[in-house]
Amino acid sequence: MLQIDVNSANTSEVTVVVNGELDMSGAARLRETFTSLLNGGKTRAVGLDLRGLSFIDSTGIGTLVVAQRICAEVGVRMQLIGVSPFAARVLSVTGVMEALAGQQR
């Protein structure tokens, strides 16, 4: 089961906290979250907290990559705040960690 929480530091900076399993069913919910944030037009920075991620499959990985790409295209900075050891291993092995971690804060 995937849990997604959005915490706002202010109107332009948000943290998306992802806990649980990011698989095909959860990926759709994460896409909806990013779509909502980006369509609002006020978000300028998204911190992605994956410390509570216990599982991620190829659909989840693809969702993260696409979210990062779309954020870049619309001028929103997305960066990893933290990542669970499991997710770090999967993202590293697949070559995705470098793209997502660009400027970790």
UniProtKB/TrEMBL annotation:
Q: Where is the STAS domain?
A: 14-105
Alphabetized GO MF terms: anti-sigma factor antagonist activity
Q: Tell me the Pfam families matching this sequence.
A: STAS_2
Gene3D superfamilies under this entry?
STAS domain
Tell me the protein family, please: Belongs to the anti-sigma-factor antagonist family.
Question: NCBIfam families recorded for this chain?
Answer: ant_ant_sig
Protein name from the UniProt record: Anti-sigma factor antagonist
Tell me the organism.
Rugosimonospora africana
Ranked from the top, the taxonomy reads: Bacteria, Bacillati, Actinomycetota, Actinomycetes, Micromonosporales
